[in-house]
User: Fold these one by one.
Assistant:
Number 1:
Amino acid sequence: MDCPQVPILGSDDEKALKLAMALAFPRAARLTCTRHLKQNFSHTLADKVGFPSQERQRFITQIFGSNGIIAHGTDHMDIAYRLQHMAESTENRSVQKLIELMSPLLVENAKGLERPGLHLASPLWTNNNCESLNHCLKQAFSWRSLKLVELVQKLHSIIKTQHKEVQQAICGVGELVLLMNIRGLVYPKMCGIPTLENNKNDT
């Protein structure tokens, strides 16, 4: 499998974080979480434009739905064209401006997804996994700031636990299991777990 030639970084639309990413990794492709973009779009339509729920949902589905512009755009140029056409098709100037503001982020996402070697299940990329892990970290830290040494120790402890869970999955024990397509990697002997073959020899 080909590997991406440059890093591909994803985040929500937090300006400070995106600026830091751009400074630290100037050649990296950057993705913005479509779930956050969808939420921002919906909130703006509701709070600033004052669109009724049904009309708001129609616009959201047209862009972010499973049959929408992002999911069915052939490339970033096609997505840019479709968004421009959508903006020009509405008579509401506020909606036009909102689509125009969001278009560069959606087009940038599409460009990032076109990088060689990148294979995502859906063009509607989200950072849900990162958000979930972030919540776990905050719970582990009791939602408080830590000094650097204590932070590193906490992270080390969490990673050790994750490694143990992975090892248990490889051994075929514990609460986690390997995905079906790699289930053949289960190796009980590595953990000293009796196998069917061993049981036969014992009898």
Number 2:
Amino acid sequence: MSGPIPNSESSAGVAIWRETWPQRLNLLWLAMSVFMAFWGVVAFVFALSGDAGSVAGSIGAAGGGAMILVCLWIGVQMAGFRWVRLSRRVTTCVRDEYGSGVRVGPGALGVNLITVMMLGCAVFFTCVLLVWHWGYESLLPESRVGVHHYVISAFFAVVTIGLVPLLSMLRSTLGLELYSEVVVRTTKRSLFARTAGDIVLSWASILDVADEVKLIHHKMGTTKTPLIRLMTHSSVPQEGRFRWDTDDYVELPVGAMAVEPNALLSVLREMHQSEARRRELLSLSPRTLFSPPPLRKRLWGPKG
């Protein structure tokens, strides 16, 4: 698995990259994305054409279109189009006690997309109520214009507006910092977190960098969520633990972090080899270190 890093930094990340969790094109999700794209465009055309009957109606239709287009982007991601570019949350970092290293922050795109979707939903249902109150043409289908339908619309408007600040509170703060001597998993304290703080593991205490998969079953099939476990021969400190950590390992929900999962796993395994190897890898820029192969190669897999 190990090997010399090429002189060209542009190929260094690809040289150490190994595929543990395949990222393949999912045609079913892609077809659903095309379907949602159609209805998203229809909603915006309806909003811009003035057929909604009022300014509030046009705004509501645009909000509904935004909600549909966010669902489209989520579908595109589920189809396999993820980690196209390296996130700005992967940066260099410095600590007085450990020196310079590299930090991988939490992924923010998923929460941001859901937040925009909730805002679009809130705008739509709020405009449904305003249009009904002002006596304009309803934004709801003709079979859904009873009073109880507007009560339901009010409920959804209140719920989605309330979810927007709640989502910001639930945003992941988990990060990972890699230094030549230690690995630091960082977590900021939040309103709903039972624990917070750093867990510091020396590379010498790590027995293995293990890969795991969490299966999430739903109507569209089964989603595989990649996990990395840093196995240790000494007890993991209680301070900073999450409920999924144990005495024997610290778990990283790598699918929720701002880097392609296979790239992070490959870098961790390479760094685990020796201090010289770690210093060699840390001399590279984060963009070079965590760059996976081009998306087209990951979607279609190896030839032959």
